[in-house]
Structure formats: C-alpha cells, structure tokens
Amino acid sequence: MTDRPGDGADPALRNLAQPDLAHEVETGTGALQLSLGRRLAAEALGSGFLIVAVIGSGIMATNLSPDDVGLQLLENSFATMGALVGLILMFGAVSGAHFNPVVTLLDRLLGSTTTKETGLYVVAQTVGACLGAVVANLMFELPAVNLSTKDRSSPALWLSEVVATVGLLLVIHGCVRTGRAKVVPFAVGLWIGGAYWFTSSTSFANPAVTVARTLSDSFAGIAPSSAPMFIVAQLVGMAVALGLVRLFYPHPTPEAP
C-alpha cells in the first residue's frame, strides 16, 4: 500500500477514499491545505485546549459543587461540549480538527490521509494534550504534574469506551460522508456531551485525552494503571467503526442529497 490516499491503495480503501474527504473536517487534513508543520501545530494546540477544558472544568466543578457529583458531571460535560464545538470550528479548515488519535487512525485506514501524517498527528495530539493537562493544573494552583489516583478499571467501563468511540466515529463519518460536514462540530459536541451521561466511563473516547488525564489528580483524572485498557477499548471501538463505516457509507457524497 502506498502513502498517497486513494493512489495505488488497496481497492477496498480506494472505494471509500475521495479527494473531497481528504480535506474535510475530521476525515481529512483541512480545506486550507496548509503545510504539515502548521497543521501539526493546530492539532497540538487544539488538543491542549480540549484537555484544558476537560480537566479545568472538572476542577472548577469540584470547587463550585463539592457535595453534588451529578452537578459536577453536568458542569464538566457542558464545558467539554462547548469547547469541542468551538475548537472544531476554529481548526477544522486548518488541520481537520481531529484532536484524537482514533479519528486520525481511522482516516488512514479509510485512505484519506497518509501514514506519515497519521504518525505525526498522533504525536502532536498526545504531546499537546499532555501540555494542556499541565496548564490546567497550574491554572488552579495544583502541581504541574499531579498523577491521578482515580482508578477506572472494570469491564463495564471498557465496554463503555468501545460504545463511546464507535458512536463518535459514526457521527463524524455519518455527517461528512452524506454531505453534511458543516454540522460536524455540533454533532461531535452533542455526542460527547451526551455520552458523558449514558456511559459509565463518562466517554473518554480518545487515547491522547486518556494519557493526558493521568497527569491530573482531579475530577477528570484517570490512574496511569487504568489508562492502557481504556486505550485498548478505544482502539477496539475504532476497529468496529471501520467495519460499520464501510457497511453504511460505501459511497461518500460531497453534497447532501
């Protein structure tokens, strides 16, 4: 398989890869078609802002509602949802606004980005998210690196991560591949905001975010020992989503019918 999307690739991938998808939000690398360095900077900064929103709102929620865990979750989910919408609108045309390794990896498997870009995107997302965790801790006068002690380890949580990841990826591809790319920021924000509540894991659905959340011993944290299985579950969710995207959206359309 070559590194050029849809150019000499496996026929199964070529059938799904279209030039339009290679530049769309979340399924490509941005309509502006900027240099790789600029796109990596956008992915790192966007991932950093995302984790600042996740961890920062979790800490603020604990401070504002110390005795009401339900209200804390509501505050945390609304802040994350709003940040996601804003960030995808901000960087969608710049880098595709992935901010999530499973989003990038699925794009590679479907042929709309390259192996090199995929690897560098994942590194930028993870580094950016970890730096965002440091910033979030410092904003609330906590140690810059404050390893989480919150254990999140059970089959129910892992299943929740599979479900959350499958749903996220289907929301993205369901919108883009049916010509509704403009609604992706809102659809993604709503899915993640809702999945905070209907999954027992509170919907991480993002390996970079999972790694970064180990660095904050706060409401949104996850113990380092719990992170590997969360990431495995997210990758399983990506594999399931790959099959479902091929099943439901075999012929992407650039414009809504």
List the main descriptive attributes of the protein structure presented here.
257 residues, 9 helices, mainly alpha, Glycerol uptake facilitator protein, disordered N terminus
Question: What report would you give on this structure?
Answer:
- The chain is an all-alpha fold.
- The protein has a single domain (11-248), classed as Glycerol uptake facilitator protein, CATH 1.20.1080.10.
- Helices cover 62% and strands 0% of the residues.
- It has 9 helices and no strands.
- It has helices at residues 11-14, 36-64, 69-95, 101-109, 115-139, 155-176, 184-198, 207-213, 227-248.
- Residues 1-17 have low confidence and may be disordered.
Low-pLDDT sequence parts: 1-17
Identify the CATH architecture.
Answer: Up-down Bundle
Main sheet record: none
Number of structurally distinct domains = 1
Number of strands: 0
Overall spatial form: globular
Overall average residue pLDDT: 92
Q: Give, in order, the helices and strands.
A: HHHHHHHHH
